[in-house]
Amino acid sequence: MASTHLAIYPGSFDPITYGHLDVVARARGLFDELIVAVGRNPGKDPLFSADERVEMATKLVDELVRAHPQGAPVRVKSFAGLTVDFAKANNASALLRGVRNLSDLQYEVQQAVTNREVAGIETAFIVAGQSFAYTSSSLIRQIAAMSTDLSKLETMVPPLVVEMLKAKKAQKHPALMRLLQPADES
Fold it and tell me: Which among 95, 97, 50, 99 has a CA at the least distance from the CA of 77?
């Protein structure tokens, strides 16, 4: 049993959003320590490399902690493999998940039950703030691919992320280009 209450907040964070940072900020008041665990989801087409996602998350989490020093310390780490294995290796008390809506909740409860049954680790949920209820990294990537004005994203992601999205768009990153292709009509 962990002597402190360490929570793992796993995700692909591709890219990290204000909604993710809201979950981090509120979790700092609930746990003794928090690890933002940047993982690889094999079912997703990544826009940013693992190193870029860790770099963005580290800078933004450090800014958050400096602006609000009260609360639990936060580290950012990358991982590969199963989230529960990463959590056990770090002696985590719980996994932390943000929930935006009912469909998120349905999926997350299924995952939480599986993680508890398979690995014996509990999951804590933080409900997204109202202004973040419909923001997702997938939506951010779609807007980045299809919009000519990425400043529209400034209410959803920090300026650092907007700048990095602009660079990916200028490079015609394949993940963005694939979003512009019409869906197969099968």
Answer: 50
Q: Domains of the chain: which residue ranges?
A: 6-132, 137-179
**Token output for 4:** 């402190």
Q: For position 184, what pLDDT does the model report?
A: 63
Q: What is the pLDDT of residues 144-182, one digit of tens each?
A: 999 999 999 999 999 999 999 999 999 999 999 999 987
Comparing CA positions, the residue from 48, 22, 41 lying closest to residue 157 is 22
To the query of whether residue 20 is one of the catalytic residues in this protein, the response is yes
Q: What is the mean pLDDT of residues 14-29?
A: 96
Domain 6-132 is of which CATH architecture?
A: 3-Layer(aba) Sandwich (3.40)
State the virtual CA torsion across 121, 122, 127, 128 in degrees, nearest 10: -10
Nearest residue to 104 (alpha-carbon basis) of 26, 11, 176, 2? 11
Are 76 and 57 spatial neighbours (Cβ–Cβ below 8 Å)?
yes
SS3 98: strand
State yes or no: is 44 an active-site residue: yes
Q: Is the pLDDT of residue 43 over 90?
A: no
Query: Can you give the pLDDT at residue 4?
Result: 86
Q: Which of 5, 59, 100, 166 is catalytic?
A: 100
Could you say which of 93, 97, 137, 141 is catalytic? 137
Q: Is the full-model pTM beyond 0.85?
A: yes
